[in-house]
């Protein structure tokens, strides 16, 4: 939620924060701030959140091993409280630098949260509803984006005098989690596999599943623990995981999926949304409400994906999502190109925007995180999340840097995103197995069997000789 909320909430007060920076600069140096310097300061405020996220995801996995999943999430709220305090005090103290510091802190908070919260969810979930539980991450990311858009409306906190309060509202979810999370148990898998605490694991399972239903889950965790003990049960570091050839395809898969989540064109569609709404005749003052509609659309599709994922499976949803997104890219290019031919084309463009967002929410937006959880066993999972999260944040930063140049292609920029979507869909179809209703060991064995078919030894050390009869 913190990630989604702080991505969107900064958009509404853009002009007000820039005015505050200009006013503060004038009071300090008795001259107006240069346009270039003001642009640099604003871009720093926006982009430092990404830097914070990269720092957060880099330390999140390590903290989750040292403090536990639940412990890390609780401590992480301190960063959110500090961020809210610094951003809220920026105006009364006349220090715009506090906004930069607050955005950095909430970025670190978001990075840690995006790394550790899915770990916690997947480790407490029964296998039968693991996908549904894992969708909680995507549901609340989209819910955060939508809430940030609503809070930025002028009827709520979107007026100039309220912008410090608007930025400080990031403390609210932190307070709610501090009140509720202590009543929940620590991850049973963490307690048994990482800590060797059998009694603590049983207690957590009884609290989560009930006394009569925890036996099967306990047996599954013990089986995974015994298997990992043969390989060395100590949690792996990211560089150790990168050097482990036995999980090469899992790593390649999550790196590809997490980079594609940022590079698939979703940001371009949001960027073009205002233009499309204007062309469709929506009054300028009403466009923010139409934009809120796109956020609500993505939130609803994330919820829908959560309901469908245990029925259709991960592979169908994410492959279908990328396929539909590539089709939307083609249609959107055509409708923008021929928008002056008929008054109906701007409305078709609007339909393409919503269809693309729906396709993203049903597939890549929701399933990517779940696959990152499921493709690794306990000792590798925190390091895998650190690697996947780092790739995600780096891709986020990369697309924000190259996006203006891609937009130079105008409507044809969507053909670039179409190619990306098609290539990812093909990779998923041929390489990634279905993970629905499978234990983590079964998923690992699926990849090992896949490597055998491709000519790799079970240890991933190299190619075997394949003979064929003529």
Automatic annotation (TrEMBL):
UniProt domain Major facilitator superfamily (MFS) profile: residue ranges: 1-436
Reaction equations catalysed: D-fructose(out) = D-fructose(in)
Main localisation: membrane
Bilayer topology: Multi-pass membrane protein
Alphabetical UniProt keywords: Cell membrane, Membrane, Sugar transport, Transmembrane, Transmembrane helix, Transport
Organism domain of life: Eukaryota
One MF term in the entry's GO annotations: fructose transmembrane transporter activity
Keyword Zinc: no
GO cellular component annotations of the record: sarcolemma
Keyword Mitochondrion annotated: no
Localization in the cell: Cell membrane, Sarcolemma; Cell membrane
Pfam families membership: Sugar_tr
Entry's transmembrane regions: 33-61, 73-92, 98-120, 132-150, 162-184, 316-338, 344-371, 383-406, 412-432
GO biological process: D-glucose import; dehydroascorbic acid transport; fructose import across plasma membrane
InterPro entries named in the record: GLUT (IPR045263), MFS_dom (IPR020846), MFS_sugar_transport-like (IPR005828), MFS_trans_sf (IPR036259), Sugar/inositol_transpt (IPR003663), Sugar_transporter_CS (IPR005829)
Record protein name field: Solute carrier family 2, facilitated glucose transporter member 5
Organism annotation: Hippocampus comes
Lineage, top ranks: Eukaryota, Metazoa, Chordata, Craniata, Vertebrata
């Amino acid at each position: 939620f913190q990630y989604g909320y702080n991505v969107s909430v900064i958009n509404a007060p853009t002009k007000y924060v820039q005015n505050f920076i200009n006013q503060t600069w004038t009071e300090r140096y008795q001259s107006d701030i240069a346009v270039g310097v003001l642009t640099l300061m604003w871009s720093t405020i926006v982009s430092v959140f990404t830097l914070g996220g990269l720092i957060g995801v880099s330390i999140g996995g390590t903290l989750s091993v040292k403090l536990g999943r639940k412990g890390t999430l609780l401590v992480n709220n301190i960063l959110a409280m500090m961020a809210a305090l610094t951003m809220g005090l920026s105006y009364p103290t006349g220090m715009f630098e506090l906004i930069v510091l607050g955005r950095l802190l909430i970025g670190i908070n978001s990075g840690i949260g995006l790394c550790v919260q899915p770990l916690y969810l997947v480790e407490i979930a029964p296998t039968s509803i693991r996908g549904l539980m894992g969708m909680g991450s995507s549901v609340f990311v989209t819910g955060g984006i939508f809430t940030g858009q609503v809070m930025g409306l002028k009827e709520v906190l979107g007026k100039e005098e309220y912008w410090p309060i608007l930025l400080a509202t990031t403390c609210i979810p932190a307070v709610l989690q501090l009140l509720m999370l202590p009543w929940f148990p620590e991850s049973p898998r963490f307690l048994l596999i990482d800590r060797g605490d059998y009694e603590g694991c049983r207690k957590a399972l009884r609290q989560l599943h009930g006394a009569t239903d925890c036996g099967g889950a306990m047996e599954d965790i013990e089986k995974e623990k015994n298997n990992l003990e043969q390989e060395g049960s100590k949690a792996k570091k990211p560089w150790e995981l990168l050097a482990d050839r036995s999980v090469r395809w899992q790593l390649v898969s999550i790196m590809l999926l997490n980079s594609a989540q940022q590079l698939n064109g979703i940001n371009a569609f949001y960027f073009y949304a205002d233009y499309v709404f204007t062309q469709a005749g929506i009054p300028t003052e009403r466009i923010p409400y139409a934009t809120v509609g796109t956020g609500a659309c993505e939130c609803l599709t994330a919820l829908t994906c959560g309901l469908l994922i245990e029925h259709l499976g991960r592979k169908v949803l994410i492959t279908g999502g990328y396929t539909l997104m590539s089709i939307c890219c083609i249609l959107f290019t055509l409708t923008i190109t021929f928008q002056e031919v008929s008054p109906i084309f701007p409305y078709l463009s609007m339909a393409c925007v919503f269809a693309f967002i729906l396709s993203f929410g049903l597939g890549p937006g929701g399933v990517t995180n779940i696959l990152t959880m499921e493709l690794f066993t306990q000792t590798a999972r925190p390091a895998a999340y650190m690697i996947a999260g780092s790739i995600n944040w780096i891709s986020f930063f990369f697309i924000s840097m190259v996006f203006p140049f891609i937009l130079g292609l105008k409507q044809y920029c969507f053909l670039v995103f179409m190619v990306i979507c098609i290539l990812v869909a093909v990779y998923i179809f041929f390489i990634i197995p279905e993970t629905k209703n499978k234990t983590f060991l079964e998923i690992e064995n699926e990849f090992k069997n896949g490597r055998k078919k491709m000519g790799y030894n079970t240890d991933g050390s190299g190619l075997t000789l394949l003979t064929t009869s003529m």
